[in-house]
Every structure is written in C-alpha cells, then in structure tokens.
Amino acid sequence: MKSANSLMSGLGTTVFEVMSALAREHQSVNLGQGFPDDKGPEEVRAAAADYLLNGHNQYPPMMGIPELRQAVADHAKRFQGLEVDWQTEVLVTSGATEALGDCLLGLVEPGDEVVLIEPLYDSYLPMVRRAGGIPKLVRLEPPTWRLPREELAAAFSDRTKLILFNTPMNPCSKVFDREELDFIAGLCLKHDAYAVCDEVYEHIIFDDRRHVSIMTLPDMRARTVRIGSAGKSFSLTGWKVGYITAAPDLMKTIAKTHQFMTFTTPPNLQWGAATGLRLADGYYSTLAADMQRKRDRLAVALADIGFDILPAHGTYFVTTDFRPLGFNGTDDDFCRHITVEAGVTAVPVSAFYDEPLRAPRHFARFCFCKHDETLDKAIDRLGRHFRK
Ligand code: PMP
Ligand code: GLN
Prior knowledge:
Helix content is 44%, strand content 15%. It is of the alpha/beta class.
C-alpha cells in the first residue's frame, strides 16, 4: 500500500493528549493540559442550551451567525478601539486551532518563509510545514523571554510571507510589550509580510498589563490577522468556537479555506459565544483577577516546595525550573515522574520546540486555571513527595 502523507504520519501525538491520558491512568491531579475547572458563565451556557432546544440547528451561514460576527466586531471596538466591519472582516471557526489552519493553508504558498517564535504552541509548525511554508525560528531565552531583536530581524527577508506569534504567550506566559510589537510591525512593513497573531489569551493578563493587538499599530490594520477563542475567554475549552478578524482582502482567502475545512461551527455554541462577548467589562476584569490570584496561589506554593518560578504575565500557565529540587532527568522524565510518583501532572516545556532535544530540558509548565481545592491538592501532593 502507498504510504500516507509523510509529514503528518511522522508526527507524534500532541503532548496535551499524551499527558492527559497519563494523568487519567494514574488518577493524578492534571495541571498539564490547559482547561479550567470552572464551568464558565451561566448566562453563556444557558444561551447555548436555549438555542440548542429552541433555535435553528441547521447549517448556519458559512462565515458564522451574524449575532456572533457583530459581537466580535463590537468586542474589538470595546477592548482594542478597532473599527471592524462584521460582514467582510469577521469569520467564525471551530476553535482557534481551525483558525490557525485556515490562515496558514489560505495564506502560505509553498516555498514562502514563515517566521515563528519559540517556544511555540504545538499546532503551528506542522501546519506551517503542511502548507509548504519554510519555518524561520527565533528563540526567546528564559527567564526573561525578551524578544531578541537582531535574530528576529535576521529571520525576516523578502521571502517572508508572514510572522505567526502568540501574545499572551503559551507556554512561557510572556506578554509582548508595545515596543516589541512596534519592532515586529516594523519588520512586517519593511518586508511586506503579514502578522498572524494568536490572541486567545487576550483577557487572561495580569498585574495591570493591557493586551495590545498588533492590528492596532500604525499601518498594520490591513496586514494583520487576529485570532480569538471563546474557549479561553469564557472558560469553555470544549466548545471550540474561534474567530478571525482580518481586512476583507485577506479574509476572502481565509474564508475560502474555512469553507472546505469545517464550513460551519455549531450554531448554538456561536449564540453562546455571542452572549459572552457582550458581557459587561466587569466579567473580563474578574476573569483576569481570578486567574491572577490562582497564579499566585500556585506559584507561591511551588516556590515554597523548592521550584524556581519564572514570571507569568498572562495565560493559564506558570513555568517552573525543577533543578533546585535535585531532579536530574529531563523535563519529560520529570513530568512522568511527578504523575506516577506524586500524583500531579505537568507538561514538559521542550514539547513547545521544533527540536525538543535541543531545547531547554529543565522546565515544567503547570496550569493554574483550577479550583483552589484542585490547586491545593496538587500542592499538598508535590509537597509531600519532595519534602520526604
Ligand atoms: N493557541 C493557543 C496559544 C492555545 O493555547 C490554544 C489552546 N487551546 C489554541 C490556540 C487553540 O484554541 P481552541 O481550543 O480555541 O482551538
Ligand atoms: N491550549 C491548551 C494547552 O496549552 C491545550 C489545547 C489542546 O489540548 N489542544 O494546554
């Protein structure tokens, strides 16, 4: 028999699935894969449930239901000051994951260069490569994860089609500041490249930082694609409702890709997401404040156990250096070890690199978007394990 696509068949199973399966097998407290304990806002779930029972459960419009597209545009105006035409500039997708795939398959021509920033979310590289793109990777170095400007400038060329990056950033919890975004924008303008910005954690941002979309920077409006996710903004990761905002010319091709990827997304979940995007400002500030408190609860306790804690400015995650505990194996070894021996699961940060063997091997990512009891149980188990 002929073989399947070699690029895809050569991939491993995503680290989130692997670690969650291991967590189930060992009944550990799963602080690996990022999903909240919280059920999400009741009005959002009630809106989706009501629509499921009483609404129109047939194919919605290919671009998404008007109510959600309007809500995405209004939300962009409210939080980023962006004027968005919901009819030509907003597309609903089945999660940010589909959105990323639509953008890469829709925009990248075989042989185009794509600039990416490591550590990176695990779907980026396989999709860039499947689209025929040539990845140009630039690494951020811990513990500051500062943008290395010379390396980034050197990664761009006139063959660069786009830069794909993520802020607030999974897994290292960096938030790109205005100067860094200006620098990236300058390179995009100089080399006539697009910026595809994964902003799924736009509302999960701490210590009075403010999320800035690169789309708002001078001359970037027409060359930026902005991606959001209801999963993250409403603590409903299983819903897989995403949204793309882009200028009409870019959107046309992205939407043509979407039409043959999923075509549509369940209408009741779109209705729920629209309800969520219309929640008052207080909902969003409470979400960020709650997550910040959870970050502190987990980070302080892990530091007390002996981990070195790296700063976490946004997202669901805190990165820890486990070497001070005296553990000498790799991050894979460590995450398996604590799952099996301590009953707590984390995710190895080297999984977020193109070549894990050449990545830092001493960081474990812990997820804090959990009930306090869950965090305390994990802390208690790790404390008992490492202090014995
Ligand atoms: N991008 C990043 C950085 C993420 O952490 C996630 C997490 N799930 C996604 C994209 C995918 O989002 P969704 O679940 O909406 O597909
Ligand atoms: N984004 C989540 C994380 O980083 C998981 C998403 C997934 O399981 N695909 O943990």
